[in-house]
Amino acid sequence: MRSPGFLLTILVIMLLLDFYVFQAVKMVSQGASPRARMVIYGIYWTISVITVLLLLGMSFVHYEQWPRSVRTYLFATLLGLFFAKIIAVVFFLLDDIRRVVQWASGKLFFRNTEGEGPSGQGTGISRSIFLSWLGLGAGTALFGTLLYGFSNKYNYHIRRLKLTYANLPEGFRGLKIVQISDIHSGSFTDKAAVNKGIDKVLKEKPDLILFTGDLVNDRAVEMEQYMDVFSRLKAPLGVYSTLGNHDYGDYYYGHNPTGALAEEKAANLARLKAIHGELGWRLLLDEHVALERNGQQIALIGVQNISGMARFHSYGNMQQAHAGTDKYPFRILMSHDPSHWDSEVQPRYGDVDLTLAGHTHGMQFGVELPGFKWSPVQYVYKEWAGLYETERQKLYVNRGYGFIGYPGRVGILPEITVIELA
Length: 422
What we know:
The protein is built from 10 helices and 14 strands. By secondary structure, the chain is α/β, with parallel strands linked by helices. The strands form 3 sheets. It has a 6-stranded mixed sheet with strand order 1-14-2-3-4-5, with helices on one face. The chain is elongated, with a radius of gyration of 26 Å.
């Protein structure tokens, strides 16, 4: 349960947003009939009151005991309403600033002229009414888009790429790798839909399957219902995996718990590691293995989570994982967090040919068009989705198989990556 002070702060913010947005609602509806205005105002405040009551309910009842699907969708809807109002308020605030500046300028410098005052009244459609409509439209569009995105969370998209390397042994040319990442099994609510994604992977008949971390949201128990699903993943050269930041249980148990909680956290991680083995996956913990094909070998390196971001704890040891790989002509690295590529791989391990990462999910929200892609996550991560290259090194960031927090995808679909080495 949150503290009363925290709850009061959230409620005050929500109410201030509600009253501010309501001023725009009144402005754009001023030409409607009294009856129509009454209906509009009633709908608006009904939604606002229900939102406040739900927030109160989530704080004073055992919210964590509600059905997972109810919690997930309710949280996402409330968050969507909040951000929709924030987007709308940006337009309203700009208009208010404009009107105040215009009014002050008229008072100070143009006393004998008439202009639009702070009330926004004037002839025709004023700038204020236009910006109010624009703000309400932008907020509504965002909220509608987020609701539509619920339908995309299991809409698995196959992305194919062919990567050419001069130093790749001939025996590995044509090797087909499938990469998946960020399963987040604790978020799933539709087992049949998840199974269809695995069908797509198997239909590709990959030579090698690589999973780059975040099997669960927090706890190993989240995988219980999905063991039979992901154990279906098989490939001639094997299925290999690494750990991601969520796999350590830090967001559930804390980074440095003590006493019984510390023991529970350690047991949870041990169980999660065992699950990889029970799935038939080879979990790489700061180590490497030799992959052999047509009588030749390359190195596959796997590190525990290593991040270039201060707020994410690093558990891995790249030096330990890389040691002994000098004898291989080609190296593939599995590292969950793409910021590791900039912070350590490029500056210190220039002989790593291909790095595979995940972690960002493309924020599950953005725009991807031919020649253009955008997501808010790009302001945090330099490499956040797709292929990145230097002179001889390549990084591929998978957009994630699962989802967390927001139970949907807008523009950035869940991904199965098919890589052919040439």
